[in-house]
Amino acid sequence: MGEVLAYCVAVHHLQASQLIAKMALKTSNNMPVYGLDGIHASVINGELNVFFLESKLAGTAASGTADYAESVSGFLKDDGQYEHEYGLVTSLGNLDALDPADKNLMMDYLDVFSNPNAPRRERSVGVVCYSEVKHFANKLEVDEGSISKHEDHFGELYRSDFNRHHTNLSNQLGVKKVDPNKCMVYLIAVPDVDELREMFYDSIGLTGLESDVPLTPPSVIEGGAL
After folding, report:
1. Do 40 and 124 touch, CB atoms closer than 8 A?
2. How much is the CA Rg of the chain, to the nearest whole Å?
3. Fewer C-beta within 10 Å: the chain N or C terminus?
4. At what angle do helices 79-92 and 61-77 cross, to 10 degrees?
């Protein structure tokens, strides 16, 4: 489920095309795929922007961002994994849909082995989906007023948490010695991430294949980038 959310964020908010989806590389429905959750890219004014996607499902925002900080730190310190991800794109990536000229340009950009200094901007994109118990429990009474007032009410509550989330994540990245300027993080609040996960897998016919271990303790989708 996290990979799908990350894909939607990359395509809609970053307007970045998918180069490779790690889910497609599974050899078994029960086998985890290690490494990034996907790689997207966009070319703007002749410059390549590469987005390394990391998705996390968590019981709280703090635990989800902590997991993200841990993952991005490990990836940036592992040169072998970094080169492996680019290798997957060049050998298994979804590049055939491009025009031949664009494909050749993209291949040249992505060839970190023979062209390691090709100009490109790399960003880690974290998508953290978590249970927001407090704000979703703070509901307005139902009346004949504006239908949108309930969503607006939640939005105000959610926006008020921005500084707290920003400070918390900045500290977590700092502890892991990760440059926050190279990271973009989207927080997606849902009433119960465990319930959402079960509904997602049930909708695609994979009930029972996901772990039974709940992500809670201590939920319209709202998101924002750091």
Report:
1. no
2. 19
3. C
4. 90
Residue 74 CA to residue 225 CA, distance in Å, equals 21
Structure tokens at 172: 């977590």
Give this prediction's pTM. Answer: 0.77
Beta carbons of 35 and 22 less than 8 angstroms apart = yes
Q: What is the pLDDT of residue 91?
A: 58
Read off the amino acid at residue 200: F
Q: Is 99 in a helix, a strand, or coil?
A: coil
**Please, which residues have CB within 8 angstroms of residue 191's CB and are 6 or more apart in sequence?**
131, 132, 133, 136, 219
Q: What's the Cα-to-Cα distance from 176 to each of 65, 74, 105, 153, rounded to whole Å?
A: 12, 9, 34, 35
pLDDT tens figures, 64-94: 999 999 998 987 676 776 667 766 665 556 6
